[in-house]
Amino acid sequence: MLIRGTDHRFNAPYELGAFVPAPLPRNLDLPGDVWMALSDAMGALGRLDSAASLIPNPQLVTRVATRREAIGTSALEGTFANLTELFAAEAISVEEVDLSIPPNVREVMNYTRAADAAFDWIRERPITIPLLSSLQAEIVRGTDSDLPEAGALRERQVFIGTKNRPITEARFIPPPPGDQLVLLLDGWLAWLNDETLRDSLHLLVRVALAHYQFETIHPYTDGNGRLGRLVAVLQLLTDGALKTPVLSISDWLKDRGPEYRDHLLRVSVTGEWAPWIEFIAQTVAASADDALRRVMGLLALREELSEQARRALPRARLAIEIADDLIAFPILTVAAAQSRYGKSNQANRNAINRLCELGLLEPYGDTRYDRLYWNRRVFEVIES
Questions:
Q1: What confidence score (pLDDT) does residue 6 get?
Q2: Using an 8 Å Cβ cutoff, are 81 and 108 in contact?
Q3: pLDDT digits 0-9 by tens, 320-368
Q4: Same domain flag for 209 and 357
Q5: Does some domain include residue 125?
Q6: Interaxial angle between packed helices 83-92 and 103-121, expressed in degrees from 0 to 180 and rounded to the nearest 10
Q7: 224 plus 367 within the same structural domain
Q8: What domain count does the chain have?
Q9: 275 in any annotated domain
Q10: Distance from first CA to last CA of the chain, Å, rounded?
């Protein structure tokens, strides 16, 4: 579709072709090697789901997976933070916009809140445009993109390419705003929620196709990549491939950012689905295997920490509770512990001090944050 306008940054008119994707297919013929990749990925997902299903309190590992995803998906969009910064910030602040937290960390925290809201939503409801719009508003909250159009479909043309370069040098130009954009998103959503497609398209084929189409439509001014990758995990949950959100795909993708973007563009240029589907299958397989290793490592560490606390402090119920949860809350303050476990401020302080004496906690050394305690071994397992 031909679009015209003026690139006001350079005071230069342009006349370019915007890409309008065709409707998604309802069935596909795929080569054998792609089917093998899909089978491997489903096997890896099954092993991960089985392991996670054995955990009495899945939140202990899903919380870690969501925060790993937050770090990876944000890095793909150029916002960088690390896990210790994120856990520390969450331990000292529950405010949606806390200016004492660095902007990059606040932006990553936005994703965790959006993801948690999405996981709660899909337990009983399908994915809808109001859900997507509310998630997008949360993702950009307090950032440079937190403008009046946040939480609404874009009303201006956007371009994918290097910042501060002319629009004529854009790598990709999504569809223009307006009625056609609304129709494209409505069509994508109807396809996404069409349960009859389960009989004709493999789950991971649907994940790959849906992700491509969403990124190509690019319905919001910002946050499309993070939102699209979140939708991929939501599809796995709603289809039953995972019972809990223990998978992080963006950590694998961030190390392959150029390949990931090239695959997306190649579909638009060639119309060939197989290479992109195989790439997504490889992403899921590698990410699921990686997640399984971390889950097993975290559970082994939890057993060790819990046993050490119970052996040394058999009557210190609060200290044992804190030790049991360290793999999910590896950085904490007295106030955060009080909010989570109740009891008095002094009781939580005493419990934390006793865990420090055991070596299960130690003061967190980053001087930007005061009165924080952490278990560094949890991060060694998470980041291994």
A1: 87
A2: yes
A3: 999 999 999 999 999 999 999 999 999 999 999 999 999 999 999 754 4
A4: no
A5: yes
A6: 80
A7: no
A8: 2
A9: yes
A10: 47
Average pLDDT, stretch 86-102? 82
How far is the CA of 217 from the CAs of 61, 97, 131, in angstroms? 33, 30, 17
The parent domain of residue 329 ranges over 313-382
* 318 and 245 assigned to the same domain: no
At 201-231, the pLDDT tens digits run 999 999 999 999 999 999 999 999 999 999 9
| pLDDT per residue as tens digits for the range 31-75 | 999 999 999 999 999 999 999 998 889 999 999 999 999 999 999
Q: Alpha carbon of 127 to those of 34, 297, 361: distances in Å?
A: 28, 33, 41
SS3 of the chain: CEEEEEECCCCEEEEEECCCCCCCCCCCCCCHHHHHHHHHHHHHHHHHHHHHHCCCCCHHHHHHHHHHHHHHHHHHCCCCCCHHHHHHHHHHCCCCCCCCCCHHHHHHHHHHHHHHHHHHHCCCCCCCHHHHHHHHHHHCCCCCCCCCCCCCCCCCCCCECCCCCCHHHCCECCCCCCHHHHHHHHHHHHHHCCHHHHHCCCHHHHHHHHHHHHHHHCCCCCCHHHHHHHHHHHHHHHCCCCCCCCCCCHHHHHCCHHHHHHHHHHHHHHCCCHHHHHHHHHHHHHHHHHHHHHHHHHHHHHHHHHHHHHHHCCCCHHHHHHHHCCCCCCEECHHHHHHHHCCCHHHHHHHHHHHHHHCCCEECCCCCCCCCEECHHHHHHHCC
The model's pTM: 0.94
